[in-house]
């Protein structure tokens, strides 16, 4: 009876993980959301679910007490253990009005400090605090696996090769997260705990239709394909999640600390 806790499940890839994992009645899914009041589509999904194997719990990953309370609640429901932690929640590129800027385009130095701090707090420190809160449960789980959601824009090598210099705060926060995973993997390797940084692909989670998503991603796809002609382009949430679940099942201790694509390729390549 594998158990999964996923952060940021109100929409996008996180909600996709809940849909896919809860389809197997043997799984128990802990769907963590920042705020019940903005998680309407998830709550509706859970209400109509045939297996009743999803528990929705509030967890704001930018708030340490909220994370600790969520881990405590999961522990009470699971008998103190968890198989897989999926650190999915993040402040995304478009969740901030200045998220798309390059390093020289901010209106003031203060806004750089403000924005970078916010991205770092949510996307780097958030998963760090979440991992710390859930390690005691993972230790008692069978699978002992944890992934964080990363991005090629957190790879200095890919950024340099592709020349995409926007999304600076987001990208730096994810690069920090990649290193946090390497450090955490080293710390817990002897105990058999596996921590991996996974790139989900370019996934169509922009609010709006499939066409609107294609339009948004088009200039970036063109730029990436100048350097990496075989770049796959935007994919559906379902495809990304299916591949990542398969990856999670294949991960071994030899993978711990790696930064990889959802098919297992090195993350420092496209
Ligand atoms: N989509 C892509 O192409 C892509 C590519 C590379 C990496 N990723 C990574 O994959 C993950 C999921 O991406 P996505 O596109 O599905 O994102 P998304 O559609 O923007 O959804 C982000 C999720 O994170 C939640 N969240 C934001 N701040 C939070 C906080 N402080 N506490 C708890 N939850 C919070 C949001 O909750 P609310 O609804 O309450 O705001 C939402 O559920 C992210 O880590 C992202 O960086 C995505």
TrEMBL record:
SUPFAM superfamilies: NAD(P)-binding Rossmann-fold domains. This is NAD-binding protein. One of its GO terms (molecular function) is oxidoreductase activity, acting on the CH-OH group of donors, NAD or NADP as acceptor. Signal peptide: none annotated. It comes from the Eukaryota.
């Amino acid at each position: 009876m594998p158990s999964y806790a996923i952060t940021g499940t109100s929409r996008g890839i996180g909600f996709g993980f809940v849909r896919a994992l809860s389809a197997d009645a043997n799984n128990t899914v802990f769907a963590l959301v920042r705020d019940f009041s903005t998680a309407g589509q998830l709550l509706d999904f859970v209400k109509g679910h045939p297996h009743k194997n999803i528990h929705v719990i509030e967890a704001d990953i930018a708030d340490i007490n909220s994370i600790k309370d969520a881990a405590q609640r999961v522990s009470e429901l699971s008998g103190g253990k968890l198989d897989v932690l999926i650190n999915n929640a993040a402040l995304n590129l478009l969740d901030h009005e200045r998220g798309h800027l390059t390093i020289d385009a901010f209106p003031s130095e203060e806004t750089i400090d403000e924005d970078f701090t916010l991205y770092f707090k949510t996307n780097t420190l958030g998963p760090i605090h979440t991992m710390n809160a859930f390690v005691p449960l993972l230790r008692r789980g069978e699978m002992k696996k944890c992934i964080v959601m990363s991005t090629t824009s957190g790879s200095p090598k890919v950024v340099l090769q592709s020349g995409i210099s926007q999304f600076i705060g987001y990208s730096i926060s994810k690069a920090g997260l990649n290193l946090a995973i390497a450090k955490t993997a080293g710390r817990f390797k002897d105990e058999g705990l596996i921590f991996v940084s996974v790139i989900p692909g370019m996934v169509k989670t922009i609010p709006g239709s499939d066409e609107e998503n294609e339009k948004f991603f088009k200039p970036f796809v063109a730029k990436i394909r100048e350097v990496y002609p075989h770049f796959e382009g935007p994919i559906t949430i379902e495809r990304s999640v299916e591949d990542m679940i398969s990856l999670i099942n294949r991960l071994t201790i030899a993978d711990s600390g790696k930064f990889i694509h959802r098919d297992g390729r090195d993350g420092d390549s496209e």
